[in-house]
Every structure is written in structure tokens, then in C-alpha cells.
Amino acid sequence: ANLDEALKHFEKVEKLRPGFERVYTNLGYVYSLKGDLVKAKAYYEKAITQKPKDVNAYYNLALLQMQAGEKVPAEMLLKKAITINQKVIRLYQLLTSLYALLGRHDEALRYQKQCVENNQKDKEAWNNLGFLHYQLTELNEAVLAFEKGIALNPQIPSIDNIRLYNNLAAAHLKKGEVKKAQEILQKAIKLNPKLPHSYQNLCHLHYQQGDMNDVIKTLQQAIKNQAGLLPAEQRDFHINLANMHVQRGEYDKALSVLEA
């Protein structure tokens, strides 16, 4: 129902402002959500015709083409969009994903490096480069990329920064550097004690190492700090802690956690 209302709204705007490329992009997006890919594609193409430098329309159309299995046209479209605007990170990200699907890892890496060169002060660009190296098991390069992203603003407790810390820890862990990974996750928790991912990854690390006491301590710390962006995430820490106590036969403690 909301999509139909949105469609009526944008169609009305189209009549009032013919030739307004943003309306065509919005109509294309709504039609794509409704599953009408033919009309979605037509409106995205109309937006590009109306404003050839509108990279948002290029991105949406390329995404649509990828979903339809039209990988070559999507590749051409994204490469053209990047020549128009070299600062839009999601263009590189989508093109990199496309090359990864095609198994063309060298090209994926080349474009991701180009993204970093054009956006050297953007954490997301460094994170994407590091993650690609991680996927290719180029762990030293992954560590370097994640560290460079963190170095831009090491003390900012943003989600982007905490994601970099967690990915850096994952790279060290894959290298077998367990203590280093643990230290990085603890640093991420200290930097932002409200985000759940660092606790979750630290618990997983301790569990893999068989350090059940440390798993429990980390879960207790998460609960004490009320970690979690949503109530369900906060509740998960209680459930996981209760399960740990059950595994140890500490049923009274498990019940106490669930009743808290």
C-alpha cells in the first residue's frame, strides 16, 4: 500500500515537473521494489538521459542489471559512472562485488585500490579494501588497510571505526595472532561500550580457545554496559550468558540471569 502511495506521489510530481531527473530515479526505485523491472529500467534510463551525470541513476540501473543477470552491461555502466564521479564509494563497491562474482579478483582489487586513492580520508574505502584483501587471504595487506582506516580517527567511537577494529581483529585472528586480536577487540569495547559486535566477536574468540570463564566475563561486561542497539540484542546477551551457565550445570545462576 505504501509503495502504491509513493508511486502516485511521484507520478503527480512528474506531471508537475516534467524532465526532473530525480523523480525518474525515484519512480525507477519504487517500480523495482514492486518487482516491475521493465518499468524500473525505463525510468532509470530516462533519468540518465535527462541528466547524464546523475551517478545515482547509473548505480540503481547497474544494480538492477546485476539482479537480472546482465553483468556485462552493469560493468560498463559502473565504469562509466566512476569516470563521471570518482568520489562515490558505492560505485566502486558494487563494481568490486560484480568482479568478485565473476571471479575477476585482480580487477576487483584494482578498482578498490583506485577507490582508496580517490578517497584516502574515507574509512569506508579503507575498510572495503581491507575486506577484499581478507577475502583473498592476503592478510598482511588486509591488516595494513584496516590500520590505515583506523589511523584517520583512532579515538572516534563511530560504527565505522568499530567495524574497522573488529575487521582488524578478524585478520589478526586468521593469521593465528590470538592475543593481538583479543587486545584489539577489548580496545574497541573500551572505545564504544554500547555497540554489541565487539563483545560478540570477543566471546566467539574466547569460545574457540576454550576459555569459558572469559566468555562469561565478556557477556557479563556486555550486560553491565547495556550493550546493544536494540532491546533484542541486549536480551541475546542475557540468553547467551544463561546458556553458558546451563552448560556448566549452574542452573540457579542461569535462572537469575533470565529473571534480571
Explained architecture:
The chain has 260 residues and is an all-alpha fold. It has 15 helices and no strands. Helix 1 runs antiparallel to helix 2 (21-33). The protein is globular. The chain starts with a helix and ends with a helix. 39% of the residues are buried.
Question: What can be said about the biggest beta sheet?
Answer: none
What is the β-strand count?
Answer: 0
Mean pLDDT across the residues is: 93
Q: Strand fraction band? A: under 5%
Radius of gyration: 23 Å
Which spans have pLDDT < 50 for at least 5 consecutive residues? none
Question: What general form does the structure show?
Answer: globular
The helix count comes to: 15
Structural class of the secondary structure composition?
mainly alpha
SSE order: HHHHHHHHHHHHHHH
Could you give the distance between the termini?
A: 41 Å
The helical percent reads over 70%
Layout of helices and strands:
Blueprint lengths: L1 H15 L4 H13 L3 H14 L4 H13 L3 H14 L4 H14 L2 H14 L4 H13 L3 H14 L6 H16 L3 H14 L5 H12 L3 H13 L6 H17 L3 H9 L1
Brief description of this entry?
Helices cover 79% and strands 0% of the residues.
Relevant terms:
single chain, 260 residues, mainly alpha, 15 helices
